[in-house]
Amino acid sequence: MGAQSWLDSSKTYDHGTEAAEVGRLDPGWHVWDATSEGRPAILDHGWNGILAELDGDVTQTAGWMDYLLAADYERSVLIAGVDGDGVPRAAAVGFMRVPRWPLGAFRVMRFPAYPSVGGDSGILAAALDACERLARARGCMTIEFVGVGQPDAVASMKPAGYSVRERIEYVLDLSRGEEELWAGLRRRHRRNVRVSGRRNVRVARSDSVESLHALRALQVEVTRRHAAKGDPFGLRSSADYDELYKHVIRRGLGRIYCAYVDDDLASAALYLTFGRRCRGFYGGSNQLGLQTRAALAVNWEAIAQLSREGFAQLSLGTSHPKVVDEGPESPEYGLHEFKLGFGAEARYATASATKQLRPIALRVHRTIQRLRSCMSTGRRSSAVQHTKAGA
């Protein structure tokens, strides 16, 4: 059987939560289900190895899946495509929320990353098709891919009926080595890194749960500054950060860098790592950090250390494409310039892709949501009027 034969086959092995022979998988597509109470054996015996062979994303690992099952979702599905030689050629992880009655039929399957693939470009299209078939088999009305995908994903998804949204991703090539990376920093960034050193900023890696919560405390300060400017955003709960530590950082899929001025924490950042790729995930600075340029020191120390350890690529996050046209008028312009200052390449990439699998069910779902919203608004209005009458 040829290496490409499984691409033309709809043969699917649905293992449920049971174990398959992870040492040898038959050609075709293999599917496993997972919940917070039931985990297939492949998650502990082979799944991350499959992803490593495919240069997969950290958001597809067993640790990340356990984190989202604990914090966000009730159910997850894993899918892997294997060629005629028994070699994995594609892998993806999807998550489902199952609404309570009477909305249980209105399910959405969401993938936090596009399928990881190895081989020619046709494999991505085949993997997307397999994910769609899986979503239909699980009774989902919508399938969504979120996060940053491969640049060629748009060519595969738009003809397949997906609505695609793009973002700018800032990608830094760490394989250039520390000396070249330093030379690639913009002059202002190099100067401010030196300034932070003269202001007694000291950066240290500290992968403890206390450091993660200290980072969250810094993020709280950031949210307050943004709220004062009319640009508020929310944070995950402290309990979610505990789950993040338990399933991701403690398993070696994340690291925290903290910047101190003398003994006072000024800035911190969390980086996710898997295989040879890493990405900046969370970051925050207090007023002391802003005054001492501590965030620049944190990022540079992380870049230098990750490069020395042999990581090949760092994603510094994304922004809306309109930041390029709007320039300084864009609320994201400061971050745009900050990330470019590290020598990152700004790439246009898919940020999300959505397809309606059951359009009628989706329209019914939206109608029910509107009715529930109207009823809730009416109850609140009646309660206010009743309160005023009582006064």
Succession of helices and strands: EEHHEEEEHEHEHHEHHEEEHHEHHEH
Q: How large is the share of residues in beta strands? A: 25-35%
Strand segment tally: 14
Structural class computed from helices and strand pairing: alpha+beta
- Runs with pLDDT <50, length 5+? none
Q: What is the terminal-to-terminal distance?
A: 81 Å
What is the arithmetic mean of pLDDT? 85
Largest sheet composition:
14 strands, mixed
CATH architecture of the largest domain: 3-Layer(aba) Sandwich
How many structural domains are formed by the residues? 2
CATH C-level class of the largest domain: Alpha Beta
The CATH topology of the largest domain is Aminopeptidase
Within CATH, the superfamily of the largest domain carries the name Gcn5-related N-acetyltransferase (GNAT)
Q: In words, what does this structure look like?
A:
Helix content is 40%, strand content 27%. It is of the alpha+beta class and 391 residues long. The protein has two domains: 5-146, Aminopeptidase, CATH 3.40.630; 170-348, Gcn5-related N-acetyltransferase (GNAT) (Aminopeptidase), CATH 3.40.630.30. Strands 1, 2, 3, 4, 5, 6, 7, 8, 9, 10, 11, 12, 13 and 14 form a 14-stranded mixed beta sheet that branches. β11 and β12 form a beta hairpin. α7 (209-228) crosses α8.
Concise account of the structure shown:
With 391 residues, this protein is an alpha+beta fold. The chain is built from 13 helices and 14 strands.
